Amino acid sequence: MSGAPPPAPRRRPTSGTGEYVAIAVASRDATVGARLRVVVTELAPPARVMRARGGTVVALRELDAPIDARALAETVRSRVAAAVGDPALSVGFGGPKKGATGAHLAMLQAEQAVAVGRAINGEGHVTAFDDLGPYCFVLGRPESDIREFAERILGPLADDRHADLVKTLDAYLRLHGSLNAVARELYLHRNTVRQRLRRISKLTGADLGDANARLALQLALLGRRALERLVG
């Protein structure tokens, strides 16, 4: 009898690449929402439905080879829309992303892409997370994190009572700090703009002359708009 150890068991090869694409399918038709989970499961194999919330269903697919994720999302949208009789069906997708952490991120991106894409472009479209432009800088994370960041940067300015100041700050940042341009856009006197900017600085603690402070404020305002679109 040999004293040599037994050979180690051979691992079964997997066909997956470890990369995932997530697709979120959303309908505003309440009568369709209940059927989406079943229909997506039937029409989007080998994707698996991971969660369903209201009129939105999120499916995850592990890739066995590189694919055109947009073409896949377009195909899913057309098939599911025809099956449930909802031409206004919207789809968002995220990924490809690697690993389990990437899979969760892809699902979050897909949900946010369909919600924000629908708010920007209307119903019946396919939106990639990467299509969201500057929103990509604040999305891709839980809504609670976005809200916490915006409130921390804006401070008391995040309160709805300061809507006029928020509008002034937004114009000031968009118009590259031009007092004249802000005054023209908001139909205000230059002195009024100056007074509002001083109050904004006091409430936020931000130095509006500092580029990093202005960028943080701009991202905070962008985060607020993203949240409005996500819950809209």
Short synopsis of the structure:
With 232 residues, this protein is an alpha+beta fold. The chain has eight helices and five strands.
Describe the model:
By secondary structure, this protein is α+β, with helices and mostly antiparallel strands. Helices cover 52% and strands 14% of the residues. Strand 2 and strand 3 form a beta hairpin. Helix 4 crosses helix 8. The protein starts with 18 loop residues before the first strand and ends with a helix. The model is unreliable at 4-14 (pLDDT under 50).
Number of distinct helices:
8
Proportion of beta-strand residues: 5-15%
Report on the biggest sheet: 5 strands, mixed
Task: Indicate the percent of residues in helices.
Answer: 40-55%
Mean of the pLDDT scores?
91
Principal-axis shape:
elongated
Radius of gyration in whole Å, from Cα?
A: 23 Å
- Global structural class: alpha+beta
- Secondary structure tally: strands: 5
